[in-house]
Structures are given as structure tokens and as C-alpha cells.
Amino acid sequence: MTIYLPIAELPVNIFTLLAMGIAVGFVSGMFGVGGGFLMTPLLIFLGVPPPVAVASVSTHMAASSFSGTLNYMRRKLVDVQLGLVLLSGGMVGTLAGVLAFHVLRRFGQLDLVIAVAYVALLGTVGTLMIVESVRALLRQWRGVKAPLRRPGAHPWFLRMPFKMRFRQSRIYVSIIPVVTIGFSIGFLGSLMGVGGGFLLVPALIYLLRVPTITSVATSLLLTLVTMVSAIVLHSIFNQTVDAVLGLVLMVGGTIGAQFGARAGQSMKAENLRFLLGLLVLAVGLRVAYDQIARPAELYAVTIDESAR
């Protein structure tokens, strides 16, 4: 069954989109990520223009994050206090990202920036997560306990002023790096069409030392609010949100996220981080390959946005 996407100007099979939504929704719920780092390249591979894919995938991430957040909140695993502080920076970052998206699109550099950013971010984060997870798994296999951190032995950025105690996450840190992380996630999410979870989860675990399951649950809350904001702002400033595409992806994402959240809670933290690292690195390598591979069509006609 084929449907026509009015903004993307592309006919696609509805069952293909639905299957993509369910699969990425499952990944979103399992790892606590918005799924945009996976869905956006998949849509581009399918033929959807990058500006439309980036803007429209926000609807899928909002739906799957909403479903996953409810699942985790019922189990009281979301650190709402930490999420609100992250959102204070995330909302500002989202607005900045949408404005940067608008400027880059006008000058015809958006596609290149998205591709390079994906390769750099996914390759770096995926590699670091795999290395750390393998070390943890080797320690576990050898029966060696992880080295205990001395109380108060925090990095310098956690000892900055304006400290706050987050009881759910069992941390006492400065809110300055927390707000900065939120801003970065909101900016990248609206500019690249990623929920930011694949960056936020490692940041919460390795920089703020939040427990893994709490990081996963709280990242979904931040993804939900920032992606809803991105949908509204992209609709106003860029008019690139395809409602038909977004609706189909939302249905699939909501279904898949419920099953993914349950699967994620039954896995060990080390295994969860290792699988997420593999997935992130694989997507980064795929995007990199597409940048150097010979295109199917050597010539294309595009509209020069800067001339408008």
C-alpha cells in the first residue's frame, strides 16, 4: 500500500514506514534514546530529503519518548528534578538549533553539515562506549571489582558553584554543567534530527555519574519535551515537517517503545551500554560510507534557498 508524502514529495510504502517506526521505537525504549540518530539516516536512505527527514523525525521521537517516559515513570525511575534542570538549557538549545538549521538551509550547506556531524558524533561516541563497556565486561568476566571512586573525587566541572542535590540520581553537583549538557542536547537535536539520547545517556553516566537505568529514563523525558518544541519551531521557521510521514512514524514508534522499555530493564548495565555503542558506531560508519560511495545519480537539480 503506497501513500504520498506531501512535504517530502515522495511516494512510499506505508508498511515500510510502519516497520521502521516500530523497530526504531523499540531501540528508543530499550536504550533511552530518541531514535533520531537511527531514523533520520534511514529516511534519507529511503529517499526523503534531509531537511524534511530531520524535521519530521521529531514527531516520531516525541511519540516514542512519550510512551517510554510513561513506562519508566510508572516504575519511578525518572529523576524529574534532574530532568527539569536539563530542560532549562535544552529549551534554549532547541531554539538555537532551529535558527542554525534555517541559516544553513538558506546557504545550501545543511546536507553537508548534517552528514559530517553524524559521522563525527556517532563515530566518536560509539567507539568510546564500546571501549568502556568491553573493559567493564572483561573485569566482570575475570571477577575483578571495578575501582571505587573516593568520595568527593569529582572532576573540576562538578565542583563549580550553584550545587544541587539530586536524590533520585544520588549525586550532588553544580547545575552549570547540567544546564550546559541540556543546551548541547537541545541544539544538536533540533539541528540534526536526533533526540540526543545517544549523547545524553553517556554524558549522564560518565560525566555526572548518574546510575545507568536512571540516565536512560531521564533522557527520555528530556527528549520528549525538546522534540515537541522542535516540531513547533520547525513548522514555524522552516515549514519542513511532513505531517503524514510523522503520523505513520508516531504510530509505529509508540508501539515499539513499550516493548523496548521492558526489554531494557531486564538487561545488565554493561550489556546495555555495549549494545548501544555498537548500534551508534554502525550507523556512523554507514553514513560515512554514503559520503564516499559513488551516487546512483551523478547530477541532481536542487533549489537554491539562498536565492530566495
Automatic annotation (TrEMBL):
InterPro entries per record: TM_pro_TauE-like (IPR002781), TSUP/Inactive_protease-like (IPR051598)
Recorded topology in the membrane: Multi-pass membrane protein
Major subcellular site: membrane
Membrane spanning residue stretches: 12-37, 43-63, 84-104, 110-131, 169-185, 220-237, 243-260, 272-289
Top-level taxonomic group: Bacteria
Annotated GO CC locations: plasma membrane
Locations listed in the record: Cell membrane; Membrane
Family: Belongs to the 4-toluene sulfonate uptake permease (TSUP) (TC 2.A.102) family.
Listed name of the protein: Probable membrane transporter protein
Lineage: Bacteria, Pseudomonadati, Pseudomonadota, Alphaproteobacteria, Hyphomicrobiales
